[in-house]
Amino acid sequence: LVKAWVQKALRADVWPSVRFNGDERVCAHLVSNELHCFHDGDFTKIARKVRVEGITHFAFSPTTSPTRLVVFYPERKGKAAGVRMYDYDASTERPLAHKSFYQASEVKFQWNCKGTAVLVSTHTDVDPTGKSYYGVDGLYFVAANGDVLNVDLPKAGPVHDVQWSPADNRFVAVYGFVPARATLYNAKCVSVKEFDAAAQNTVRWSPNGRYVVLGGFGNMQGEMRFWDVRKLVVIGRGTAHCAAHLEWSPDSRYLLTAVLSPRIRIDNGFMVHRYDGAVVCEHAVDALFQVAWRRAPPDAYPFVPPSPRVFDDEHQQLVASGAELRVGSAAEQAAGA
Fold first, then answer.
1. What is the pTM assigned to this prediction?
2. Among the four 121, 178, 226, 270, which has the fewest Cβ within 10 Å?
3. By C-alpha distance, which of 171, 215, 207, 176 is closest to 190?
4. 8-state DSSP, 316
């Protein structure tokens, strides 16, 4: 045993209360109104304290040169909630950026791949206007250069999902009451593409940042649309009924979907979809609890552009009408490849 702490209150939204930075040089432990930081595996003494009144959440950037830190404190005694970003390696504790807002009791941080900006998703259970039974969601952009922006979400309703591109500073947000809208934003939070409204609540980027899949899961039918984000066109459609797991392959050519126990105890199994939605593999399992791709370094697979495909007139009409393409057996697919 290297080090142990006592956790007086356990809440899922603030767990874990101990986090490491990207290279594990810094370990931070959340206590009342402070972060206690330990350096280089030495837990015998606190190397640094970061004091923020009322702090409940924090996260380190994925990068380590420099290491950045973002913290959140909720509304308290009529005072606004807020987010602060720090350069952890700097000698000063003056924040790089600071944003205050109301209607925020919970928060989720998502850093971009370069560690230069973070998306802050906020939620409160009570809507003071009475328009929503599910509370109020917000989305904010905080950057290390001091830019602090409200992400404009044109349609009212919850923020279902938001994900950064793994390759650059663009991100996609899915928001609004059903049929929900999805929007691609650039690094200035300016809308680049308004995707079609649909029964959707999930977005997943391929590891190379070329493709995006938008789908509706949970209490929705599992319909998916595959987008080429460079050309901003739909390249395919698919369906994964009752899927609880979605994951792109490391080479960005395939999407894995799975129906898992104990969430659903019947029809367990997984499917593998090509980047254009076509099903290339389907396997049923009596009780499937977990399935995943074998991990690979980000640079293990070179970029491969979309393969040109030739459809007959009937298939072209189906694609144009938005109808689902039915995929035959593996032997039929191999014959038509």
1. 0.85
2. 178
3. 171
4. H
